Amino acid sequence: MKPKKSTKTVRKVTDQQKLRRILNKIDTVLSASYNDDSAVAAKLWDVLSALRGPDSELGNWHKIKDATTSVLRKIAFPKTFATLSGSIVMNEKATGASDSVARAALRSAITSLEESTGVHFTGHIDKGFTALGLDWYTENK
What we know:
Layout: H1 15-30, H2 38-50, H3 61-67, H4 69-76, E1 87-90, E2 94-97, H5 101-109, H6 113-117, H7 121-131
Antiparallel strand pairs: 1-2
């Protein structure tokens, strides 16, 4: 006797559905601000807000992004940016870079960037660095 063919319909999970599941997990952590983990939720939001980085509104934005946002991304997502040194590009969109003395020196030089330019990027990146326990002025390993 032959086994019966399954009549179950297999539903393919779309990319949007997968993304929604991941966003729901992040949302659960962020909504913890109403629970006991408000400090963790706030730190997660600080890191997420810092991931974007400066754009062309700043003169040396490529160098600034390399010394700030790229370092934060690599430390926040070590599996994604799994190189030992230098900068890498993920999907030609997001860069991740190992920190260095030169990058720390550049960060030190742009400390007053917000006051001099009015660009609010520095507030986001400062909170992201703080949330991850990173030092703005020295190389982070």
